[in-house]
Design brief:
It is a single chain. This protein has about 475 residues and is mainly α. It is built from 20 helices and no strands. α1 runs parallel beside α7. It starts with a helix and ends with a helix.
């Protein structure tokens, strides 16, 4: 496949991946708003705590080998089937551990509801194991249209189930039912749309070959997961489920935006980079394009979201969720740097350097744990602020190896994203002054969003931003090619 064909397939995949993210996350966003109005913060906090334990188990079920399947150029049926059966076996082991360990966790966190909720929600481990293999097949073939249909169908059905149960007073159980239904529908649709079935093959030789690459990613994911969730564990233990609900809800809005934009780019980027891993110059170009494009969209959204946080929360979630506003604003600053994190790490993985990836995870999480340890002495908001300082440090650490691998230094990356950052900050200052007019939350929000979007894209066009020009040219090329095919 030549560069032109790869570019065409990557762009088409990116469009479908973005549509999948936009459609599913958009519907999920609406569902979460409705659920937040029906369910108490402490019930959300309980499910957030349970999600930590399930996330820990999912690292072993879904990570490492699955990424190795995408990276390996000549992955065969033996590889896929062996990883499938291994994933199910690991899911079974962790399900048993969580089932019998649930009462101990409930006692430690003084929350009796943890036991039944954890035992039921842990069933998602088996569905996640199946879905991860199907996702690897889709990613290898850049067939992201299939994920669009499965994700959209799942979020609609699961949303209806969750809302119906919440409306009828099931509380936290509504969230459990929603997540279980979502995973089941995704697995069901992919089963009929992805032309892959596990064979009765289990090869230790295949697993050994994948293990040499995948174990480092597995350990890296485990380290990252432990740090990401250890904050929530401290919040749950030191404070209460309601505070954990505010803490996690504050992260949800910026996380949703980043998942739509940066997640779409990175999901397509890894298999695309893997295809061109022998051409370092081309890999550098693709990494740079991913960073610049992600930053162009994510920076203004994070700055804008931080500014409009209070009226947004009042309108969407009601005033009972106002304590989540400071956490939301701090999370915006932390998530804004995600394009630099992920693009650099994807490049390192695609080049087959999972050894470097593991070292980076150890170093940056050690730094982050030090920051967390210091922040614990200064209260809940300091814990949240520690996320931002950790993100700044991690962005530098993640970028450092690519100065050697791709001749693309951290300073060059900062120079590439600086125009978007500066313009976003100016936009944020302008829309902040709108709040001084003491209008209703709804009117304030409408005016801020309108001015922010108009100013940012208008100035980007006026200043001839490289990224905007590239997107406009690429869009025209896609339309021309589409018309030619017709």
């Amino acid at each position: 496949m030549d560069d032109k064909q790869i570019k065409s397939k990557v762009i088409a995949s990116l469009v479908w991946k973005f549509l999948e993210r936009l459609g599913t996350q958009g519907i999920q966003f609406i569902v979460q708003i409705i659920l937040a109005r029906l369910i108490l913060p402490e019930e959300y906090g309980t499910i957030a705590l349970i999600a930590i334990f399930i996330s820990f188990a999912n690292v072993f079920v879904q990570y490492g080998f699955n990424t190795a399947l995408i990276q390996k150029k000549d992955a065969n049926e033996s590889d896929f089937s062996s990883v499938f059966f291994l994933s199910l076996a690991v899911a079974g082991v962790f399900y048993v551990a969580l089932f019998f360990g649930a009462p101990l966790m409930a006692g430690y966190f003084e929350n009796k509801m943890l036991t039944p909720l954890l035992r039921v929600l842990s069933i998602t481990l088996f569905l996640g194991g199946l879905n991860s293999i199907q996702n690897a097949v889709v990613a290898r073939n850049l067939a992201f249209r299939k994920l669009f249909y499965s994700s959209l169908g799942a979020v609609v059905v699961s949303g209806i189930v969750g809302i119906a149960m919440a409306y009828n007073g099931f509380g936290a159980w509504a969230l459990v039912a929603q997540q279980l239904t979502n995973q089941f529908i995704v697995a069901l649709i992919l089963w009929f749309t992805v032309k892959w079935r596990p064979g009765f093959i289990f090869s230790l030789a295949s697993l050994k070959g994948l293990f040499s690459y995948g174990w480092k990613l597995l350990v890296s994911a485990l380290i990252n997961m432990l740090y990401t969730n250890i904050q929530s564990l401290f919040v749950a233990k030191i404070y209460n489920p309601a505070m954990l609900g505010y803490f996690n809800r504050g992260q949800q809005f910026p996380s949703l935006i980043v998942a739509n934009i940066n997640g779409s780019i990175q999901s397509v980027m890894f298999p695309a980079l893997a295809l061109k891993q022998d051409n370092l110059h081309r890999v550098k170009e693709m990494v740079r394009r991913a960073i610049v494009t992600s930053a162009f969209f994510i920076f203004p959204m994070m700055v804008g979201l931080a500014v409009i946080a209070e009226p947004l929360v009042i309108i969407l979630l009601t005033e009972k969720w106002l304590p989540c506003v400071p956490f939301l604003q701090i999370s915006c600053a932390a998530y804004a740097l995600l394009p630099i994190h992920t693009a650099n790490l994807q490049a390192i993985n695609a080049l087959g350097r999972s050894d470097i990836f593991l070292k980076l995870e150890i170093i940056k999480n050690a730094v982050s744990l030090v920051i967390l340890g210091i922040s614990l002495f200064y209260g809940i908001y300091a814990i949240a602020a520690g996320m931002f300082f950790s993100s700044v440090a991690s962005s530098f650490i993640n970028a450092y190896p690519n100065k050697m691998l791709l001749d693309y230094s951290y300073m060059q990356q900062m120079k590439d994203v600086m125009p978007s950052l500066l313009l976003s900050v100016v936009m944020g200052i302008i829309i902040y002054f709108v709040s001084w007019f003491n209008m209703t939350p709804g009117l304030t929000l409408i005016i801020q969003v309108t001015i922010g979007i108009s100013f940012y894209f208008g100035m980007a066009k006026l200043l001839n931003f490289e990224c905007l020009t590239y997107l406009l040219v690429t869009g025209k090329e896609l339309l021309v090619n589409r018309n030619k095919r017709k």
